[in-house]
Design brief:
Layout lengths: L1 E2 L3 H10 L6 E4 L10 E4 L10 E6 L6 H4 L7 E9 L6 H7 L5 E5 L9 E7 L5 H12 L2 E5 L3 H12 L1 H18 L4 H21 L5 H7 L6 H10 L3 H20 L1
Parallel strand pairs: 1-2, 1-4, 2-3, 4-5, 5-6, 7-8
Antiparallel strand pairs: 6-7
Helix pairs in contact: 5-10, 6-7
């Protein structure tokens, strides 16, 4: 069962639905649902059915209001998977009468099957629960299991919020290319193609450090060296990135 099917929930469901599970979606605002799923508007439309998995994809402020009504619907061998941002395992478990909870922080590229998700398991979660949750999320991209909610907050700062940083870097890169004389269309082609190809190279050559890969394309006294010196020769960009992740991590902790 999937409780809530907003933008992230529906994006993930597209890939979750490729497995053998049969999903019931509870969402009062959704008009249509994917094939092989059943859509209801409220808890009242479901009888006394039992579920091995209940997925929480509602807004954090709705947790205590909505979830208790579903606690009796979780089977004895089932677990709860939550993608509700900033909602702790303690809150979720309390609302679900002590049910085993797995929290997941997906990121936006999960919408195209290229997500990087982080996952943490609470008390009562067994190996079967954990392996199923990992397999479910791997349908949307890669998964990193972490050992605590604090590490999940740190992963949120790095990957959950990460697409925003990358989009902003790309935006600035495109704007600078335009100022160098390119049209917006040509600047996007050059910048996004460069980013895509470079990241693909780094992923394909994962045994080589990023520093080495950088140095391999940097000739002494050349154009790349001049650009890198202007970009981060004083370490200011590195400091800014550290500040960025720290600010996001601090906010994640506040929300929890």
């Amino acid at each position: 069962m999937l409780i809530g099917c907003g933008k992230m929930g529906s994006a993930l469901l597209e890939y979750w639905n490729k497995g053998d599970e049969k999903f019931i979606i509870v969402d009062p605002f959704l008009e249509t649902a994917p094939d092989n799923t059943r859509l209801v508007k409220s808890r009242e439309e479901i009888s006394s059915e039992q579920f091995d998995l209940i997925i929480v994809a509602i807004k954090p402020q709705m947790v205590e209001q909505e979830l208790p009504a579903y606690s009796t619907m979780l089977s004895g061998k089932g677990y709860v998977l939550s993608i509700a941002a900033g909602t702790s395992i303690v809150r979720l478990s309390g609302a679900m009468s002590g049910a085993p909870i797995i929290r997941v922080m997906p990121n936006l590229p999960a919408a195209i099957g290229k997500g990087t998700s982080s996952l943490v398991a609470g008390l009562g979660v067994n190996d079967k629960h954990r392996s199923h949750a990992v397999e479910l999320m791997e349908r949307t991209g890669t998964v990193l299991e972490v050992e605590s909610e604090d590490m999940l907050d740190r992963a949120t700062a790095v990957a959950g919020s990460g697409p925003g940083y990358v989009f902003e870097i790309a935006r600035m890169y495109v704007a600078a290319a335009e100022e160098l004389g390119f049209s917006r269309e040509d600047a996007r082609t050059l910048v996004l193609g460069t980013i895509e190809g470079t990241i693909a190279m780094a992923i394909a050559d994962d045994e080589t450090s990023l520093e080495t890969l950088r140095d391999n394309v940097t000739s002494k006294g050349g154009t790349t060296a001049a650009g890198l010196e202007a970009l981060n020769g004083d370490d200011a960009l590195s400091a800014k990135m550290r500040d960025t992740l720290t600010a996001a991590y601090d906010r994640a902790r506040e929300l929890r």
